Amino acid sequence: MHVVFFNLFRMKNFFLSSVLLTSVCLTGVSCLNTEETGISSNPNIITFSLANAGQGTFGTQTFTIDNTNNVIYNVDSLPYQSQLDSVIVTVVGESLSAVIINDSIVFTTNDTLNLSELVTIQTVAQDGETVKTYSLDLRIHQIDPYLYIWTGINSQVYTGAVTVEKLVHFNGELLLFVDEGNDHIALHRSADGITWTASTVSGLPAAFDIRYIVKFSEQLIALHNNVAYFSTDGQTWNTRPASGVAVSNLLFAMNDKLYALGGSGSALFVAEADSTLAFTGIGELPSPFPITGAGIYVGTSQSGVPRVFVVGGKDGNGALLNTVWSSENGRYWANLASNGVPFTPREGVAVVQYDSLLMLFGGRDASGLANDIQWVSRSFGITWTLPQDKETISSLFVPRYDAQIAVNEEKYTIFIVSGRTSVGFIKDVWRGRKNEKLFLLK
Fold first, then answer.
1. pTM of the prediction?
2. How far is CA 332 from CA 116, 253, 285, 335, in A?
3. Confidence of residue 170 (pLDDT cuts 50, 70, 90)
4. Which domains does the chain have, with CATH numbers?
């Protein structure tokens, strides 16, 4: 086997090349017939590889050699803005005597070239006469995979009155519960965040607090006066009693368990229950722990273990907090922000974990509406910074508190719905997604 190495220099302008190419035998006889001479007339390339000798990296790329259509291409695109200033290409054929680029340049091992136009690779078999020409279809990501695209997709989901909102992503839909006052709860549902359908909720009692609805065991569930309310569609609700220790609000669901707030005053504790709804106290709440107004999201730790994050809010004395409490079992808690965080104590924050990035949106601090509307943590809640330019939500996103946030995990999409400003509820919808997730969509 004769191996030919050569270098390609290309400008940073990216391209996809497609050229109609032919394979010819200059002698007019069978190109692959070696029986008479013992010299190979096979000009086929067997493998093709590419490496970067300069800055940046191409990662591991597999190139397909299409010897029928005479095209060499990579199925997985090279990284966005790959540095192509110094590219080493290796061509391997069974018995090649020469490799020629763009019909004019014969390569030797240390050649370097500047190829800013279409790339063709011509191979010459060992017999010196049989020639084949390939096009190089070098595919490169044309979008920045690390850029978050934030888009306002609906300016007003509904027009009615509102006192409280609650958003849940459930069974492939966004469910926005709206307490319209006078013991009337409306439900607005959407598959895409753009088009919404309104319906009336039935089966919930007067003075029901929709803020504490959680997903659990393929159902929606909430507690009211030690009675559990269940729904499989968000619209029709049924009841069953809860037992064990008395609890008030549900906090979250994790690891097939429900976690609720029990006790009162300074004697608050966390209670746990499985699908039987028999609640058991599992430990006192740490201090200072938020009783209202916290952003709660069940995500994962660095090792992939489910973990809940509870950010900001107000403690039992009404003091604003900028704590970041976290637990993997509801029993043992750590304040990840014990060394301090750069954002002010605030309530009404929206918290979400997306692609391992923990993000905080909005809130209301002691001075009113917080204008630093976005913070991120790359260390699973330990340290926080302002977002990088590629992560920053649109400047058209209005500062708010009590924004509702949910993730469609199948579509790798974040939805931020409504929230409150100094003049009332905003009722809009924002959609965010990291570009690289587009390649994972089915």
1. 0.76
2. 60, 16, 9, 10
3. very high
4. 2-137 (no CATH), 148-440 (2.120.10.80)
